[in-house]
Amino acid sequence: MRAKIVAGNWKMNKTLEEGLSLASEVVNMVADEVSGDVKVVLCTPSIYLHAVSKLVSGKVSVGAQNAYEKESGAYTGEVSPAMLATVGVKYVILGHSERREYFHETNAQLATRTDLVLKQGQTPIFCCGETLAQREKGIHLDFVKQQLTESLFHLSNEQITKVVIAYEPIWAIGTGVTASNDQAQEMHALLRAHLASKYGQSIADSISILYGGSCKPDNAQGLFACKDIDGGLIGGASLKARDFVDVIKSF
Ligand code: PGA
């Protein structure tokens, strides 16, 4: 049985006060309304992680949106996985397409970051996904496979089982255009087959693969019902407690 996970990626949104009230609302609504064993993650801006980590409980944990590939030192403005661990962070998003595009993060850097996050006992949420141009050229499957190969395939069998993967087609992020259930399932199945080619089927079957990209209450049910989709990485719809909890309840 794979873990079911819904992670909210707040990106660079909310004041501290707004963030704390959103987090409290989510924690309360999840406690009241969500049965079943689903894990909920709030990936807040890093400056709020400490405060939010003190008010989460039950099924809800906190996650960072990024972490640097060094443990400490002269890297002005950066935050390491070891530092995140000291403020209660349990999950770390790595390689979000916005980080890859605007901050030029490479597959090699993300490989190192994955190692450091695992070393802290945190769960990396490793993001992959293609642009619309790549999909139109028909190279999307190979492109996404390569992202996994170059950033994750150095991991041992034991390490890879601790990674969560998020497939986020770039053309669906924040655009209101969602991948169809078939498009998402096709890619998730392909990613799982790719993991199986390296680690074997039973390990591949144990890894949660989340879908992200305009996932919201009115389409989450169809996506989460797909065989290889184990939850979601939710941007816009994670900024309102009601919408986010409705997504969580879509399993
Ligand atoms: P979106 O963002 O749900 O607003 O499309 C998803 C993400 O970027 O993780």
Which terms summarize this structure?
8-stranded parallel β-barrel, 251 residues, TIM Barrel, 12 helices, single chain, globular
Task: Tell me about this structure.
The protein has 251 residues and is an alpha/beta fold. It is 45% helix and 16% strand. The longest helix has 19 residues, at 181-199. It has a single domain (4-8, 12-248), classed as Aldolase class I (TIM Barrel, Alpha-Beta Barrel), CATH 3.20.20.70. It starts with a strand and ends with a helix. The chain has twelve helices and eight strands. It binds 2-phosphoglycolic acid. 2-phosphoglycolic acid binds next to strand 8.
How many angstroms separate the termini? Answer: 14 Å
Low-confidence runs of at least 5 consecutive residues: none
Largest sheet, if any? Answer: 8 strands, parallel, barrel
Q: Helix segment count? A: 12
The strand order across the widest sheet is 1-2-3-4-5-6-7-8
Q: What fraction of residues sit in β-strands?
A: 15-25%
Mean pLDDT: 97
Can you identify the CATH class?
A: Alpha Beta
The percentage helix is: 40-55%
> What's the domain count?
1
CATH homologous superfamily placement: Aldolase class I
Q: What is the CA-based Rg, rounded? A: 17 Å
Q: Which structural category do the helix and sheet elements fall into? A: alpha/beta
- The global form is globular
Bound molecules: 2-phosphoglycolic acid
Q: How many beta-strand runs?
A: 8
The appropriate CATH architecture is: Alpha-Beta Barrel
Element order: H for helix, E for strand = EHEHEHEHHEHHHEHHEHEH
CATH-derived topology? TIM Barrel
